[in-house]
Design a protein that fits this description.
five-stranded parallel β-sheet
């Protein structure tokens, strides 16, 4: 059994990705980050998902609050009630500068430390908010970089980046999660904190549409 590090935010996409890594037969280490985001509700979900599967869960603390993003700064409003065309028209204020670059670097280091040979990340380039670090060309370039910048890479055992949901619609991600019996009821996708998901931010709207189009009812609570 080979090892895999799975980036786990606690959301729909990352939880489905974790389920896929387990289904692929890997010994999984889940990796989450406390990076100064608006709320830590997603970390509670990540812990619950990791506990559900009984996998090792590593939470890394780092402060990205100086980065200009609606997810790290209270003085920037999270966009609400935007249409799909508007969501994809530009890079939104919820983009956290270089976040995936930083998190993948930590994941690569963890891979070398736990003898894992791949990173699973739930990036998606179909129903997404226009983030530049969720595109296939980014991951292709990044995989080449860690191949020449890590000990395992230069010794001929490079770390691979697995992108199981990159080209899936949100509805297809829901269907895959259901097929894999992923605990989607434990997940949190809302950009806002609170007892219930807001139902208005881009992430909530894409999630709700995904469940609707897949023919399932979302089991989490909304305002």
């Amino acid at each position: 059994m080979s090892g895999a590090v799975v980036l786990l935010s606690g959301g729909l996409d990352s939880t489905t990705t974790l389920a896929q890594a387990i289904a692929d037969g890997h010994e999984v280490t889940a990796l989450s980050f406390r990076y100064g985001q608006r709320h830590t509700k997603e970390l509670v979900s990540a812990k619950n998902v990791a506990d559900h599967y009984g996998v090792k869960h590593v939470i890394v603390d780092m402060d990205l609050s100086m980065f200009r993003s609606a997810l790290t700064r209270d003085d920037i409003d999270v966009p609400e009630c935007r249409g799909e065309s508007e969501m994809g028209s530009d890079i939104p204020v919820t983009y956290v500068p270089a976040r995936n670059i930083i998190m993948l670097s930590v994941a690569a280091g963890l891979c070398e430390s736990v003898d894992a040979d791949r990173i699973y990340i739930g990036a998606n380039s179909v129903d997404y908010s226009g983030y530049p670090d969720c595109r296939e060309e980014f991951f292709e370039a990044y995989e080449k970089m860690i191949a020449v910048g890590t000990k395992c890479g230069v010794e001929g055992n490079p770390i691979h980046i697995e992108l199981p949901i990159l080209h899936l619609s949100k509805a297809d991600i829901v269907r895959l999660g259901k097929k894999l019996n992923a605990p989607l009821h434990l997940t949190w996708s809302c950009y806002e904190g609170g007892e219930k998901a807001c139902g208005k931010c881009d992430s909530c709207q894409l999630r709700l549409k995904g469940f609707h189009d897949a023919g399932y009812e979302d089991e989490i609570d909304y305002c």
